[in-house]
Automatic annotation (TrEMBL):
PANTHER family: GH03217P-RELATED, PTHR22930. The keyword GTP-binding does not apply. Residues 77-189 form the DDE Tnp4 domain. This is DDE Tnp4 domain-containing protein. The keyword Flavoprotein does not apply.
């Protein structure tokens, strides 16, 4: 069936062009890890089919069972082909449970990360002023510049998730989820190097509905407020 797909159908289903697919296959065939040596008398799955299965899995939301049925292979073969935070955990909770939470101040070394309003404010993690309809001009200007810088990475994530919809709902254990995300990033970057445009896969970016998670105040939360206010004043001065 796949050879009968038009070029547009191929792109829509596999989230890359047919030429990019061919180029990627030629590269993967040189990888010893993907050699198609048969085991147990079972016919080995060629690289092209492994890649079809992986791209189908990443690009959609079909279950392992349905993908196995579609490609005429076992469910275990689908799992092997795709392995190269289950559920919908709040972004801020993921941060709270990561090593960055305890080491952010040291790792940033006087600098800071930029995050949206869903995250807590810290000296090393600057978030926008919460819009309570009483922001002054200085605070509004800070929010505007903060958003302008943050939109670059938001767009990058939007492009990645637009190409691979599976990233919205990864139904696997954490170790496998990490591998899938890395694979998605590698494939996405390969497509970009091939100038394989994926604007039509873009999802709308909306972080305004991310409710902040409540944390117990820590010592540098006040320091975060002081630092943000100082930067806001400096930016306002530069604007003048």
């Amino acid at each position: 069936v796949i050879p009968r797909y038009s070029n547009e159908e191929f792109r829509r289903v596999f989230r890359l062009s047919r030429q990019t697919f061919i180029t990627l296959c030629e590269y993967l065939k040189q990888c010893q890890e993907l050699s198609v040596n048969g085991t147990g008398g079972r016919e080995p799955i060629v690289v092209e089919k492994q890649l079809y299965v992986l791209l189908w899995y990443l690009g959609g939301t079909d279950t392992i069972h349905r993908i196995a049925d579609r490609f005429g292979i076992s469910e275990s073969s689908v799992i092997l082909s795709r392995d190269r935070y289950p559920g919908s955990t709040h972004d801020a909770r993921v941060l709270r449970q990561s090593s960055l939470w305890d080491n952010g101040l040291r790792l940033c070394n006087g600098n800071h990360l930029v995050a949206d309003a869903a995250y807590p404010l810290r000296r090393w993690l600057l978030t926008p002023y919460r819009d309570n309809r009483h922001l002054n001009q200085e605070q509004k200007h800070f929010n505007y510049l903060h958003s302008s810088n943050r939109v670059v990475i938001e767009r990058a994530f939007g492009l990645l998730k637009g190409r691979y919809r599976r990233l919205y709902h990864i139904d696997s254990k954490v170790e496998t989820a990490v591998k899938l995300i890395v694979v998605a990033c590698v494939l996405h970057n390969f497509c970009l190097l091939q100038h394989d445009n994926i604007e039509e896969f873009m999802e709308a970016i909306d972080d305004q509905n991310c409710a902040p998670l409540q944390f117990f105040a820590q010592e540098n939360e006040a320091e975060g407020i002081i630092k943000r206010n100082a930067i806001a004043r400096l930016l306002a001065t530069q604007q003048d």
